[in-house]
Amino acid sequence: MTEQPTGQPRPSVDTRPAQRTVLVVDLDGEPLAPLRALEEILLCLGTWEDDDRQDPGADTEPLRLPAPLADRVALAAVQRLLTTLAPTQSRAAEGRQLAPDGRYEHAPMTVLSLPAADIDLLSTTAAALGHPGLDPDITNLVDASAEQLNLRYRRAGRTELVALLARLAGLLDLAPTDDTRLLTARLRATPPGVDSVLSDAEEAAHARTADRMNHLWAHGSAIDRYLY
Hints:
The protein is of the alpha+beta class and 228 residues long. The protein has helices at residues 32-54, 73-85, 116-129, 136-146, 158-172, 178-189, 200-217; strands spanning 19-25, 97-98, 104-106, 109-115, 196-197, 226-227. The protein has one domain. It has seven helices and six strands, in the order E-H-H-E-E-E-H-H-H-H-E-H-E. A four-stranded mixed sheet has the order 5-2-3-6, with no helix packed on it. It has a two-stranded antiparallel sheet with strand order 1-4. 25% of the residues are buried.
């Protein structure tokens, strides 16, 4: 048997799963607004790329987009995320998660399996759009799209949009804990559209997980709980 040479670095192996199990909380559609704004931005950038390729100007520099904005790479990831996340938002009374006594409802959570690469792409896309050296034309495009967001009576700009996208990526990349594993197991065991009456342990896990999500998404503002 040949011994492994000592002192030599071993080839790095990416052991991260291709699919990531994610708990998504119903935030009444709030995470979808920045994603849709990002989709519009990336669609426009894709059109600019196509125009440059089909009709390159002799006196102008062709548009060179940084990764992952180029070649619609980020756009494809964002569209996949939108398709998967949209059904988890504004679900009304479908598949409620109730307190142990059944008297009130917690903000519902859904278990999803998302491509890990798409979550990573969302994070790197936010970083690319927030880069101080971003092309001025792209900066203006991002600012114009961000201004159309309704952020609770506050005017949004590129900084706010980039921050929302980065926070959403953080939500989708929430580190697993015993709490998230407990909730994931319970939700997977519950048929779609069926109410769950949480146990005391599950309710405590829900509260701690919601608190973690709040600190990422809303800087500590409470996720609503609906009383009956």
